[in-house]
Amino acid sequence: MTEASAPAPEGRPPLRIRWALAFVVFAVFFAVNAWLQPSLLTARVLASNLTSFLPLVLVAIGQTYVVLAGDIDLSAGAIIALVNVSVVSLIEQAGGSGGAIALGLAAGIALGILCGLLNGLLVAVLRLQAIVTTFATSIVFGGIALWILPQAGGSVPQAYWRGYAGGLGPVKLTVILFLVALGTAILCSRMRWYRHLLAIGGNRLGAFQSGLAVTRQRVISYVLCGLFAALAALCLVGETASADPLLGPSFTLTSISAVVLGGTALAGGRGGVIGSILGALTLGLINNIVFFAKLPYVTQDLVKGLIILAALAGGILGARR
Amino acid sequence: MSLLVAENIRKAFGSTLALDGASLTVEPGQVHGLIGSNGCGKSTLCKIAAGSVGADEGRLRFDGREGFFGTPAAAAAAGIAVFYQELSLIPDLDVAENIALGHEPRRRGMVDGAAIHREGARLLARFGSAGGKGLTPGALVRDLSADQRQIAEICKILARAPKLVIFDEATSSLDGDQVQIFFEIVRALREAGTGIIFISHRMDELFAICDRITVMRDGRTEATLPVAGTDREAVLTLMVGSALATRHRDEAPPRPGAPVLEVAGLSNAVLRDVSFTLHEGEILGLGGLHGQGQSAVLRAIFGADPATGSVRLGGTSQDRRSPAAAIRAGLGYVSGDRGVNGVFLDRPILENMAIASLSKSRAAVFRPRAFVERVGEIVARLNLRFAGYDFPLRTLSGGNQQKVVIARWLATGPRVLLLDDPTKGIDVEAKADLYAIIDELAAEGVAILLHSSEDEELLTTAHRVLVFGSGRIRADLAGEALTPTALYRAAYEVSAA
Amino acid sequence: MRLLRNPLVLAGLAILALLAIGEAVAPGFAGAGQLRSQFVIAAMLGVIAAGQNLVILAGREGIDLSVGAMLGLGALVAGNVMNGDNAMILAGLGAAVAVTGAFGLLNGLGITILRIPPLVMTLGMAGVIQGLLIILTSGRPSGRAAPALTRFIIDPLVVGIPGLVFVWAGLALLLIWFLRRSRAGLNIYAIGTNQEAARLSGVPVTATRILVFALSGAFSGITGFLILGYTQSVFIGVGNAYVLPSIIAVVIGGTPLSGGTGGYTGTIAGAILLTLLQSLLNAMAIEPFGRQIIFGVVLIGLMLIYGRQDRLRT
């Protein structure tokens, strides 16, 4: 083929910040939080906030991949519950040594991946409706979790939660984990499969005609969601030092709220992981604000509900330009 | 050795046969034109070659490899790239990302954004400034105009350096300058030994760029001709087959009835200042190439799409146009795109017939028995047969489904019927029934606006034909002037010999 | 084989199978006494699923995740209006329906006018109502059902069948009539099957979408009223357990989440099927986790039978 002789103008990828709006919302809530709770701006409070937000941040990252591809995962919370109780039980059974902890961590991650794989196979390969199917698998995962541990209990060795609460020098481990998660998410958004995920969510037929492996990418997105749910579960174990099969489920809908708040369209193809991280942090800040605003206790849930509804609606309207 | 050989391809979608006996041979380093009226199977044949549609029968050989492609990915890997009429662009990726989709260059495992945008800029540069404002590598596809999207899709193909390119209506939204640049690109591809299939409705374009032309009709290959040894008339004759022999309707135009529908200065994204008057009992045909404004004018009159300009029905101005208002004013709209605009496949036949009458009467309660009594006569007139009113519409053939939609509108007692290519994809018998009823309705005084993509139907049915081109009325043909040749010349922009 | 593809037939057969298995595992399972209490439980699910059914039928990713919170709100309003007074039963019902219908209307307006996706809008609304409930009750249950209502719901009314089942039957007939014989009902199917064709046939698309969400709110309110009558007083989170089952009852009853096809007859079967399945698993003396696992697996199995989506390649 004869190449055009005209000198190619220097192409530079444009700076397109898909999470700008989510960042503005986050900044506003952060400012309000700092105003109500001046100690927020100290390193210690910031770090402890980050610690309590971390599990939601992780699930929200995983959920984003599924939503971007045009699907949804209603089993993320149940996967957290299942991994949570499995890891604690396994470590106890294996004797609580350092090796047992390592085994528990690895098994937990593998379990999360396996759950995600099952979802992916049912939804993308067998072509079942995502909402109902992942709800059904959430029932199964939740049931297995109750099987392993009927009620909250168990405990992990000191090394686990001490290690989780510890850090490298002055920097807390959870802060490092957050930064690693953020960094990984940014790196992933520059991978080829991530582009393909956006393409599949944006125009499934067009992506198929462009030769993309639509089914495989959808399965991968569910696997990633399972993986991140498992990581969230491991963090929860570190935070509570015990297991609770009822701890996970509330994360499902909250993670979807975080994703939408972060500017990702539920229809797929539009948005990104960084927005979801900001969305998850914003949800955490809303909790703080309602607490520190010293509202009468009974009004807190309503105010929280109204703020979240307004933020969701505002985000969707804003994203439409 | 030929690059692509497709032989005796057969493909049915449900009960409609899209291809039967379609063959095509493409040589490397040649531009091969593919022409035929709408629905003749050109696009389906190309999709089968590209692996995005499966074939029922036939054989395919590409670049020495025997067999059909199972997925678009397999065809792409073998070296086939397709310009899809409906485009395969992703709205929320930018132009450069779309161009690189599926084969993004990487650096250390990461997508190389800079390389993607350099490559995008290099390919877009071939269109120079003809792409217009806003067509940059970093522009989101959702923000582009129709011609810019086509240019992006063309660049997406060039980036793959394919052995065979299929351009399916790649020029339909491009202006003259853009087409010239596109031709230069096609010639460069030909020089480099690429095989090219070029589908277009514009005869001039085919003769300007092609080496050979294959004519298709009704899902079959009619003939393949070298461009050097043929002319436009010969291709036209092959395309329309027996149609040229058909004469237009014998009766004289009806005695001029009172004007019913007066359209003045109708304009929108597609239409440019369209004005005409439709009379009582008149069948006014809308002709021309596919998508030149025929559907758009019907939809604008019906209030389905926004438009400026005035529409007067029986002397009353229709200012706040919406389908609901149009129905109450006595309009009815039948679309050839039944699947999108007409049918409720899973609903009973009865409901499909009743829905518009309910909207018109605004009755709160639906009385099936009374409605069946009323509609029974219409069903008989339409020669419509089915097992029962409660069966889902899905159980009927395409032709009968369309008759149900016609019954829906006849049940409202319309003064004007807007028919938007109503016989698209339905069988011959149903077509004949539909045209018989159109004649009868006109004789009863109903005014009819008929868009048909088959010129033969316009010639045999309409009293007068408006030929559309680029959203304007190009010609108004009636009486002696309404001849097959005049229609084809106006539509295909062939200047008189 | 073709008959088996009909969701209604399938659900009917599954119900019979469950009864047979139940009778074999725990004699008396299919007996009159047991069935009576099964139907009372199924009726609650059936009524709340009615609203969900309308929302899903109307298509466009229609789903209502706020039905649980609405149920709680309806129960609270009804309980405080009645407050144990038999004369206030109808007033209690009316107040519950008016309030939850109004919140449903808000859902509909947000979804159509502001174009917020139904999942997000109703999820957010659930949070708001849940917060409202806490304020209204200060976290403690308040209000009481009228004793006559409780008797009507639980005690056999005619031939051993409790009044609640008649209420459900009445509502069901009304709804089936509405979907088949009213213009609004036909319009719901029309927009769910093919929104563009509906618009071109003069169907008021926006008004119809708002209507289904308002009706869903109203049905949740009725359910709240009935559950209050059944249990006499309720805690505010009572509705949470009904949200996803209401969707499942609709889907296994043959109305796909994409909308446009199916109807309430199937949903009735779906509600009974779900209730019997739960109760059979209880009767089988399996541990709670085992019941839950089997329940989930059965759901996936049902989805496999008739929940497949189209292929990309034709």
Can you characterise this structure?
The complex is a heterotrimer of chains A (321), B (497) and C (314). Chain A is mostly helical and 321 residues long. Chain A has helices at 20-36, 43-68, 76-93, 98-125, 130-148, 158-165, 173-188, 192-202, 204-209, 214-240, 250-261, 273-292, 300-319, and strands at residues 167-168, 171-172. Chain A has a two-stranded antiparallel ribbon with strand order 1-2. In chain A, helix 2 packs across helix 11. The relative contact order of chain A is 0.20. Mean pLDDT of chain A is 89; it is low at 1-9. Chain B has helices at 42-49, 72-78, 95-100, 113-125, 146-158, 176-191, 203-209, 232-240, 294-302, 323-329, 338-342, 349-361, 368-381, 398-410, 428-443, 455-461, 484-492, and strands at 4-13, 16-26, 31-35, 57-62, 65-66, 80-83, 106-107, 110-111, 164-168, 195-199, 212-217, 220-226, 259-267, 274-279, 283-288, 308-313, 316-317, 331-335, 416-420, 447-451, 464-469, 472-478. In chain B, 35% of the residues lie in helices and 25% in strands. In chain B, strand 21 (464-469) and strand 22 form a beta hairpin. With 314 residues, chain C is mostly helical. Chain C is 72% helix and 2% strand. The model of chain C has no long low-confidence stretch (mean pLDDT 89). At the A-C interface, helix 5, helix 9, helix 11 and helix 13 of A face helix 5, helix 11 and helix 13 of C.
Can you describe this structure in just a few lines?
The complex is a heterotrimer of chains A (321), B (497) and C (314). Chain B is α/β, with parallel strands linked by helices.
SSE topology:
The complex is a heterotrimer of chains A (321), B (497) and C (314).
Chain A: H1 20-36, H2 43-68, H3 76-93, H4 98-125, H5 130-148, H6 158-165, E1 167-168, E2 171-172, H7 173-188, H8 192-202, H9 204-209, H10 214-240, H11 250-261, H12 273-292, H13 300-319
Antiparallel strand pairs in A: 1-2
Chain B: E1 4-13, E2 16-26, E3 31-35, H1 42-49, E4 57-62, E5 65-66, H2 72-78, E6 80-83, H3 95-100, E7 106-107, E8 110-111, H4 113-125, H5 146-158, E9 164-168, H6 176-191, E10 195-199, H7 203-209, E11 212-217, E12 220-226, H8 232-240, E13 259-267, E14 274-279, E15 283-288, H9 294-302, E16 308-313, E17 316-317, H10 323-329, E18 331-335, H11 338-342, H12 349-361, H13 368-381, H14 398-410, E19 416-420, H15 428-443, E20 447-451, H16 455-461, E21 464-469, E22 472-478, H17 484-492
Parallel strand pairs in B: 3-10, 3-11, 6-9, 9-10, 15-20, 15-21, 18-19, 19-20
Antiparallel strand pairs in B: 1-2, 1-4, 4-5, 7-8, 11-12, 13-14, 13-16, 16-17, 21-22
Chain C: H1 7-25, H2 32-57, H3 67-82, H4 89-112, H5 118-137, H6 147-154, E1 156-158, E2 161-162, H7 163-181, H8 183-193, H9 195-200, H10 205-231, H11 243-252, H12 264-283, H13 288-306
Antiparallel strand pairs in C: 1-2
